[in-house]
Design a protein that fits this description.
Layout (H helix, E strand, L loop, with lengths): L2 E7 L1 H4 L6 H10 L5 E8 L3 H13 L5 E5 L10 H8 L2 E2 L1 H11 L13 E4 L2 E6 L3 H11 L3 H9 L6
Parallel strand pairs: 1-2, 1-3, 3-6
Antiparallel strand pairs: 4-5, 5-6
Helix pairs in contact: 2-6, 3-4, 5-6
């Protein structure tokens, strides 16, 4: 079973001004691959806080996969990709390349995503956008390749 941490990054959600619909969608979708949410948090768009949470989850081995939602756009406070890059040890660019490739067919605005993906220790981290619709579309593109990647990362599969 894949252990998943869901991290919603949103000033408004963390302040209680908006409900976290995107995190709920992620939780529902991961069940399709038999994954289980083991960690959930909502934090503001703050570089140091994002970095701290990503680091702690991956360093302590809390989850095999961290799915972030929010903070991947052009707004001044959108710093999720930068915080992710400061934590990962290896990039996994194919995941976000595939997401952009497929979702730009739905909306040209998908090309504006600055999302990143990478590995720290034995945890895969993938940034998703903040809107519920975009989360569903983006996660839908990569959901069924994630178990194979996690199996390789955990050493369950040694050949592929």
């Amino acid at each position: 079973m894949i252990k998943v941490a869901i991290l919603t990054i949103s000033d408004k959600c963390s302040a209680g001004e908006r409900e976290d619909e995107s995190g709920k969608i992620i939780d529902e979708m991961i069940q399709e691959i038999g994954a289980k949410k083991v960690y959930y948090d909502v934090i503001p768009d703050d570089f140091e806080k994002i970095k701290e949470v990503l680091y702690n989850i991956s360093e302590k081995g809390i989850a095999d996969l961290i799915l972030t939602t929010g903070g991947t756009g052009f707004a001044p406070r959108d710093v999720t990709p930068e915080a992710t890059m400061s934590v990962i040890e290896k990039e996994a660019p194919g995941l976000v390349e595939l997401i952009r490739w497929e979702t730009v067919k739905i909306t040209p605005q998908a090309s504006l995503s600055r999302a990143r993906a990478g590995i720290r220790k034995s945890t895969l981290i993938v940034n998703l956008p903040g809107s519920p619709r975009a989360v569903k579309e983006c996660l839908g593109v990569i959901l069924h390749v994630l178990p194979h990647g996690i199996d390789i990362l955990k050493g369950t599969i040694t050949e592929h």
